[in-house]
Amino acid sequence: YDIVDEDGNIRSGGGGDFSYCLSMAFDSSLTVTYLIPVTPEFRSEAYYIPTVGSIGLGINGIPIKGDPPSVTTAEAGIGGTGSGNIPALDHCGGHADPAGYYHWHFIPQSINTVFDAPEYNFTNLYGISCTNTYIEYEDHAAFAGLAKDGFPIYAAYDLIDGANTLPADVATTDECNGHTHATEEFPDGAYHYHALETGAPTVPVCLMGSYVDRNDFTVQ
Ligand SMILES: [Zn+2]
Ligand SMILES: [Zn+2]
């Protein structure tokens, strides 16, 4: 890719014939409305989140989306020629949408376990970690948000007897990294998703419940 110019600077912005680091402007006047089932219902088969598809929202209202567009799968840019724009993410896994609203491609409560993972080792090598004070980024078993099907999303671990425990060791996890057991917020037991521990992005790749289609408001 030609994202770095002859002087060693990263091209940012967008447009033109070169590759760019996409940096979008924020528009804090925007509002985003979610229609989320109060009583979630299971679908007949898992719904896989498409690229930049909506997953749900964090507990502070920030949208959570599926994989950002990848230049490695785009026609342009393959083999180092042409343009392939790369959307930059901040240390908590978020950035502004072209429409101007901030959103996450990671569950921030779990992004530091990815940075620490041996295959990345970003914290050790580059000192990179999420330090957003508005989220419990150090609580890796935190209740992190709601999927658009109404099922809760937790960070990468379950807290069992005060210890971070891998979800699969608590109750069998399905293809969407979800399972059912009692949690602090749902003491009678509830189906919930977990963020991935070291996979990137950390978000659930699919949903098991019905959700409202944003275009025609039908239940999918
Ligand atoms: Zn994005
Ligand atoms: Zn769990």
Structure description:
It is a single chain. The model is unreliable at 76-82 (pLDDT under 50). The chain has a domain at 106-209. The protein has two helices and 15 strands. Strands 5-4-9-10-14-13 form a six-stranded mixed beta sheet, with no helix packed on it. A three-stranded parallel beta sheet has the order 1-2-6, with no helix packed on it. Strands 3-15 form a two-stranded antiparallel ribbon. With 220 residues, the protein is mainly beta. The termini are far apart.
Question: How would you summarize the topology of this molecule?
Answer:
Elements: E1 12-13, E2 21-22, E3 42-48, E4 54-58, E5 63-65, E6 86-87, E7 94-96, E8 102-104, H1 108-116, H2 122-126, E9 143-147, E10 152-154, E11 158-160, E12 163-165, E13 178-181, E14 190-194, E15 206-209
Parallel strand pairs: 1-2, 2-6, 10-14
Antiparallel strand pairs: 3-15, 4-5, 4-9, 7-8, 9-10, 11-12, 13-14
Residues 154, 158, 167, 170, 179, 181, 192, 194 line the site of one zinc ion (ZN).
Nutshell version of this structure?
The protein has 220 residues and is mainly β. It has a domain of 104 residues. It has two helices and 15 strands.
Count, helices: 2
Query: What is the makeup of the main sheet?
Result: 6 strands, mixed
The tally of beta strands, per DSSP, is 15
Radius of gyration: 18 Å
Tell me the structural class.
mainly beta
What value does the average pLDDT take? 88
Spans of at least 5 consecutive residues with low confidence: 76-82
Bound compounds, each kind once, are: zinc ion
Q: Record the strand order, biggest sheet.
A: 5-4-9-10-14-13
- Our measurement of the CA-to-CA distance between the termini, rounded to an integer number of angstroms, reads 39 Å
The rough form would be described as globular
Q: Work out the strand percent.
A: 15-25%
Order of helices and strands: EEEEEEEEHHEEEEEEE
Give the proportion of residues in helices: under 10%
